[in-house]
């Protein structure tokens, strides 16, 4: 009997000290309460988190981008412990372009508005230089939009919306190659130079241009300012444009984002007006006069991502309020309810915020990427500015529910 008791005691002590695989590990939580705080990890010992694509489900140990099971420790220098962050310590990431992939190792191109640098951001790796564009960042311009070629897998071309010393324009480039002009002469002004670029997922590029500080230009059919353009990769009007024109819609002033559904059946553009922020659903050949939704409080609508077909919502980043606005979309493609707010630091379990969000781009139908612009008037943390992953879960989910 004494021998068996001594053996059992030794086994218990061994488990307590060595914790071999066959020993039990006791949980220190009950009824949602933690009896002792978890230690803050060091940069050499980051927290254990699930990577992109993990199923959040009902298991609190599971996590997915932007939705962690427990509060994430604050960044330490350029080290960010949030699994949704794939690049850190950049400057005003106004433009992003998600690279194709299944999300297991998400990658994107990130463009700095002021410097014109384009970097390759990949989860688990340091960002690396991809290209350098010559830009002028005055009048809210600079590098404000990035998009992959509709045939990127074959041609490896990237398109950018930039401000130069003389105009706003679209250029194209490949890694290691000098940029080439595609569409030039878009009016430039003392303000109103911000524009953006995306794809319509039907083989063409969409270019949203600012009004160059002249609100009347948005309605002027002879000006490329304040318009939504649809172009091919050579800068010409593709088939399907009204009257062979580059212009498919008019009436923009300070656009922040343009995005399309996976099948190209829905196209959206965000805009900032003097009295409100607005979202438009684009109808080719029709002026942008009746918004699909408006925000009188002007949160600074920016990039967008259409998660609707992935049981999500239409998600819109805000570069002033620092949140996602998530709008439910009905079967007919119309906005079907009020927006819910996420990534504002107040909602979610636990609440998460990345601060001011600017450009957004899809990686695949269930994963998008966004850039932050906290160094442009926000409250940057040590790892800003960042490139972060966005999923339907972080956007508030389907049916307008957070």
What's the Cα radius of gyration?
24 Å
Give the CATH class.
Mainly Beta
Mean pLDDT: 85
Strand content: 25-35%
**Widest sheet: strand order?**
3-28-27-26
Counting structural domains, the number is: 1
Largest sheet: 4 strands, antiparallel
Task: Please write the string of helix (H) and strand (E) elements.
Answer: HEEEEEEEEHEEEEEEEEEEEEEEEEEEEE
Number of helices: 2
The total of beta strands comes to 28
CATH architecture: 6 Propeller
Considering the protein shown, what is the CATH homologous superfamily?
TolB, C-terminal domain
Q: Give the CATH topology.
A: Neuraminidase
Span between N and C termini?
60 Å
Category from helices, strands and their pairing: mainly beta
The low-confidence parts are 1-68, 398-402
Shape: globular
What level of helicity do the residues show?
under 10%
Question: Can you walk me through this structure?
Answer:
It is a single chain. By secondary structure, the chain is mostly beta strands. It has a single domain, classed as Neuraminidase. It has 2 helices and 28 strands. It has helices spanning 2-18, 152-155, and strands at 29-30, 33-34, 85-87, 93-98, 107-112, 117-122, 128-132, 143-148, 158-163, 168-173, 180-186, 196-199, 205-208, 227-231, 247-250, 257-260, 267-272, 277-281, 293-295, 301-306, 314-318, 324-327, 340-342, 344-348, 351-353, 357-364, 367-372, 387-390. A 4-stranded antiparallel beta sheet has the order 3-28-27-26, with no helix packed on it. Strands 4-5-6-7 form a 4-stranded antiparallel beta sheet, with no helix packed on it. A hairpin with a 5-residue loop joins strand 21 (314-318) and strand 22 (324-327). The longest helix is centred in the N-terminal third of the chain and has 17 residues, at 2-18. The protein is globular. The N and C termini lie far apart (60 Å). 48% of the residues are buried. Residues 1-26 form the signal peptide.
């Amino acid at each position: 009997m004494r021998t068996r008791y001594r053996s059992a005691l030794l086994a218990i002590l061994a488990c307590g000290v060595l914790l071999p695989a066959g020993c039990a590990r006791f949980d220190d939580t009950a009824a949602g309460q933690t009896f002792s705080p978890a230690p803050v990890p060091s940069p050499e010992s980051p927290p254990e988190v699930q990577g992109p694509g993990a199923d959040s489900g009902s298991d609190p140990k599971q996590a997915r981008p932007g939705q962690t099971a427990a509060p994430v420790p604050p960044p330490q220098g350029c080290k960010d412990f949030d699994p949704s962050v794939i690049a850190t310590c950049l400057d005003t990431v106004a433009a992003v372009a998600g690279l194709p992939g299944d999300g297991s190792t998400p990658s994107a191109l990130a463009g700095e508005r002021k410097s014109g640098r384009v970097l390759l951001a990949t989860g688990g790796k340091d960002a690396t230089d991809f290209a350098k564009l010559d830009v002028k960042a005055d009048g809210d311009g600079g590098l404000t939009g990035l998009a992959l070629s509709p045939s990127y897998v074959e041609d490896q071309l990237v398109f950018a919306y930039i401000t130069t010393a003389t105009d706003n324009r679209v250029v194209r480039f490949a890694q290691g190659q000098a940029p080439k002009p595609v569409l030039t002469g878009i009016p430039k002004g003392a303000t109103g130079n911000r524009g953006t670029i995306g794809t319509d997922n039907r083989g063409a590029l969409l270019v949203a241009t600012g009004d160059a500080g002249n609100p009347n230009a948005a309605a002027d059919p002879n000006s490329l300012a304040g318009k939504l353009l649809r172009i091919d990769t050579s800068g010409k009007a593709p088939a399907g444009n009204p009257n062979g024109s580059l212009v498919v819609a008019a009436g923009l002033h300070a656009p922040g984002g343009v995005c399309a559904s996976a099948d190209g059946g829905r196209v959206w553009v965000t805009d900032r007006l003097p009295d409100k922020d607005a979202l438009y659903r684009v109808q080719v050949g029709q002026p942008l006069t009746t918004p699909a939704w408006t925000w009188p409080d002007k949160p600074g609508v920016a990039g967008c991502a259409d998660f609707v077909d992935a049981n999500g919502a239409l998600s819109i980043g805000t570069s002033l309020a620092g949140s996602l606005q998530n709008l439910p979309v009905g079967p007919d493609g119309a906005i079907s309810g009020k927006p819910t707010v996420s990534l504002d630091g107040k909602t979610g379990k636990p609440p998460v915020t990345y601060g001011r969000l600017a450009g957004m781009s899809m990686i695949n139908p269930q994963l998008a990427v966004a850039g932050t612009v906290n160094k442009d008037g926000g409250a940057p943390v040590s790892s800003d500015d960042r490139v972060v992953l966005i999923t339907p879960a972080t956007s508030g989910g389907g049916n307008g529910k957070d």
